[in-house]
Amino acid sequence: MQEADVFSQNYLVCGLEADEIAEIEKLADIQVFLPQEFLCRKGEKSSDLFVILDGRVIVCTTGGDKLAEIGPGSVLGEIALVDDQPRSADAIAMGKVRVARFPAKEIRSYMAGNPQTGFTMLANLSRVLSMRLRKTDAALENLALHPQDAWSNSL
Question: pTM for the complete prediction?
Answer without folding.
Answer: 0.84
